[in-house]
Amino acid sequence: DALSSFYYNASNSYHLFFQGFTLADNDDHLSCEISSGDASCLFETVGENPDFYESFVDCIESLRTTDSTPVNNDKSALALVAESTMTSLKQFPNSIEEDEELLESEDLTDLQINAVRARRDEKLCLKKVRLFSEDVRNAMETGLW
């Protein structure tokens, strides 16, 4: 008899936190969070939703309505998002490429594999958010947004 399993379409961070494991080749499902003052933004990609549009709309609104965030327009909010993602990325001791090399090695335990996958996926998400915020900012400056 065949046994079929279905795992909720979610990021490796979600799987690790709630189910105790991660999945290989799960780059379509990423999540990460950035914060500034008492405002925070959660970004998630699920399957074919790589552009973060809804997350960005919510994030910009959150940043503009939070008292502790010095943001008075969308361009300022986008700059803050880009800056926050860069700050978060710089806090990691290694790069996405180094994580990929680690995952290719056969020296890692299952726990280490889970940790590296979750860390790598968070970095991928932060990088996508930063690039998207820069694209939106450029589109705003050229009148395309």
From TrEMBL:
Residue ranges of every copy of the Rubisco LSMT substrate-binding domain listed in the record:
65-123
Which Gene3D superfamilies is this protein grouped with? Answer: Rubisco LSMT, substrate-binding domain
A Pfam family the protein falls into: Rubis-subs-bind
Protein name listed in UniProt = Rubisco LSMT substrate-binding domain-containing protein
Q: Which organism is it from?
A: Spongospora subterranea
